[in-house]
Amino acid sequence: MATPATGPCVLTRRGVLAAAAGTLLLSACGREGDREQAVVRPTPGHELVIGVTLELSGPGAALGVAQERALAISAEAANVKGVAVGNLRRTVRLEVLDNRSDPRLAAQQATELGERDDVHALIGGALAETSMSIIGAAQQLRLPFVSLAFGDAITVPLAQRAFIYKVTPDAGDVARRLTQLLDSQRVRRIVLLAEGGLHGDSGVRAMSNAVRAADAEIVRTVRLPRAADGVTRAAEQAVAARTDGVVVWGTAPTSGAAARALREAGFDGTLLFDAGAVAEETLEGRNALAVEGAYAVHPTSLGGSTMANGSAAGRAYRDLVSQYIHRHGAYNGFAPYASDALLLITTAARLADSVDRGRLRAYLQNQVTDGMSGLYSFTPIRHSGMERHSLGVYRVDGGAWNRHS
């Protein structure tokens, strides 16, 4: 509604989505309020069982362990009252398995979990390769799977991903923000240092498309090898191109190792990361000096400064940070993707009044939810739901991620 002071209202996509999220939240809260009189604790013997396969060891542990910790805290919070499903309040039970960063083991675990009648949904795959290996089993067994990995191929082609969802941002959205940042820093010529594999492939495509629409040029693309001893050679190739900026598109711990190798090779220009770099390990130890002054595009939960103080998501995020620090000693700002995956599944169960896999899938793909990492908008034709407006730019100053824009 227009007012004399503010002029006409302008409807934006984010505004519409936020309104829809509020409607869903009010609907769910209203239904819970009706039940609150009769049921105030989880109903004994009734559970919402979620299988979890994560990289708790191996190369992906820098991401997987942090997500498992956040997931455990969020599940405990949900179980204070339980999840209202129909006329019951179900306890969330997590079946957590370590896939050791091995795609074959992750696929085996997904199959074993999916063949159990009591498992209702699946979360996991912090690495693109493990997530991709889980997809086949989840699809075949019609088990809703929410991936925590980076890589656009996780949710497309849609015809082969009916039960698959992703909470991380799309590569194209991250690349556009990185390109805008390059323009603001007057960096015109860059090297793209992209890790091998699906996540790096998404970055190469996205950055190539983004620079075409901007006054920038990718002078050279260098792929980062999986082996740590090959990072030095890749960094030397990047520095030899003599550019003012390097975009490192990879996940921790590779991102931090690449930054260190670049600085050791003599690079003193602008260093930028995609969202996969944001993990505790990137800022710690030998990486600390190398990443100082670097930028990253990441969901705006990083640091928590933009979370609305009075919102349910804001309160949940502050509680997560507090509990994480209490239990594990430090919280350097990784996105709580696993916590949001749990929220999406429990919200689907509440709205569906059911834990049936098919109904969970139906309500996942028609859901707008304000999570800790950002706003999610899933539709039947879009299973990668994080909205681009949920992304911000951060800079490492004093060993911490600080909001830049």
The chain-level mean pLDDT equals 89
**Portion in beta strands:** 15-25%
**CATH domain class of the largest domain:** Alpha Beta
At the fourth level of CATH, the homologous superfamily of the largest domain is Response regulator
Based on the coordinates given, report the CATH architecture of the largest domain: 3-Layer(aba) Sandwich
Distance between the first and last residues' Cα: 30 Å
Main sheet makeup: 7 strands, mixed
User: Rg from C-alpha positions?
Assistant: 21 Å
Q: Residue ranges: pLDDT <50 for 5 or more in a row? A: 1-39
Tally the structural domains: 2
CATH topology of the largest domain: Rossmann fold
The neighbouring-strand order within the major sheet is 8-7-9-10-11-14-15
Structure description:
This protein has two domains: 13-169 and 308-389, 3-Layer(aba) Sandwich (Rossmann fold); 171-303 and 391-403, 3-Layer(aba) Sandwich (Rossmann fold). Helix content is 41%, strand content 19%. The chain is built from 13 helices and 15 strands. It has helices at 13-36, 61-78, 103-114, 128-140, 171-184, 198-212, 231-240, 254-264, 280-283, 288-291, 312-328, 337-352, 357-364, and strands at 47-54, 83-85, 88-98, 121-124, 145-147, 164-166, 189-195, 217-224, 245-249, 270-273, 295-299, 368-370, 375-377, 391-397, 400-403. The protein has a seven-stranded mixed sheet, sandwiched between helices. Strands 2-3-1-4-5-6 form a six-stranded mixed sheet, sandwiched between helices. A two-stranded antiparallel sheet has the order 12-13. Strand 4, helix 4 and strand 5 form a beta-alpha-beta unit. The longest helix has 24 residues, at 13-36. The chain is globular and about 65 Å long. The two termini are 30 Å apart.
